[in-house]
Structures are given as C-alpha cells and as structure tokens.
Task: structure prediction
Amino acid sequence: MAVSLQKGQKISLKKSNGKKLSRLMVGLGWDAAEQKSGFFGRIFGGADNIDCDASVFICQGGRFVDKDDLVYFGNLEHRSHAVKHMGDNLTGEGEGDDEEIFVNLDELPSRYDKLIFVVNIYKAVERKQHFGMIKNAFIRIIDDETREELCRFNLSEDYTDMLSMIAGEVYRYKDEWKFNAVGSGTTDTGLSTLAQRFA
Result:
C-alpha cells in the first residue's frame, strides 16, 4: 500500500519489505483542466494543448552547480548514467505517469546529495498558460525492480498564474535517502531561471 504524502512531509526511501531502495522511478503526471471554449480560448491556447516538461536538477552540497547536472528533454541521461529521463510527453494525454525519470542511487557519485524534480510549461508566457489550467498533478516514487508504488504526493493546491512547479526532492540525509513532498509553484519562466533558484 503506497503512502499518501502531504505537502512538506518527508519519508525514508525503502522497499515495502524495509530493505534499502536503490533503483527507483520517479513518475510525474497531470491532466488538462476543462476550460471554457470559444473565441478567446482558441486565441490564448486552451489547456488541452499544454506541453508540460519534467526535469531534475542534480545537486552537490544541496546546490545546483553545473549545467551538465540537469536532466531534461534536451539531455535525457546524466553523465554518471545514474539518472535517465524516459522521454518527453508533449500533451499529457493518457493514464498514469506522463513522464518518468529513472534513478539508480547506488551508482550516483557520492558528491551528489539532492535531486530536485520540477515541471514547467513549455512557452508558458507566449501561450498564456499556467498551472491553474492543470489538474490531477502528482509525483510518485516507484520501486523500479517490482514496479510497486511506494509513495505518492498529489499536488492539489491552486497554482493559478504559476509557470513552474517544484514537485519534490530526493535527498541524502546521513546514510539514508529520503523524499520530500515540496509542491511549490513559481513564476519562473523556464529551466534557466529555475536553475538560478537552486544555485
């Protein structure tokens, strides 16, 4: 039975049998909220064509210090091969995860201690789109070996006018990896401005 998390809640990343979790899949999902149709909806781009992109900032000492430590649709695999983006979903259509990011914690070099998972809307300003036009957003942690869902965080707040989302973070505390349900919306227009936030 997966643990359902609330905003700000932290949980140790362990298998259901209590053993250490090393290979995990981070699943992120969302749906377009129903928008009023009509002339203005067509002009300003309704929610049905929102392109959300999931990315992960891989940090050293809790900070994002190197542009090569960003895994996103333009750089699908980290240089350590321990973090891999499974591909870009352009529409958010379909059941389950819209995008998934694989992490092998055992192979991640020890200098890295935090992975920050974010979602941003592609060309949000140009298309006049924001996360208030998204519903059913979530981030979940899956045991990659068994495909068992270990925990899930539903991002259910009102994110109107927010252009990016800090969904959650996986971080090392002492000798243990944990997950923090963040769920913070920001007005950052893309990954470059988000990167400044974590630098």
Observations:
- Helices lie at 39-44, 124-127, 191-198.
- Confidence is low (pLDDT under 50) at residues 39-44, 90-94.
- The CA atoms of residues 4 and 152 lie 5 Å apart.
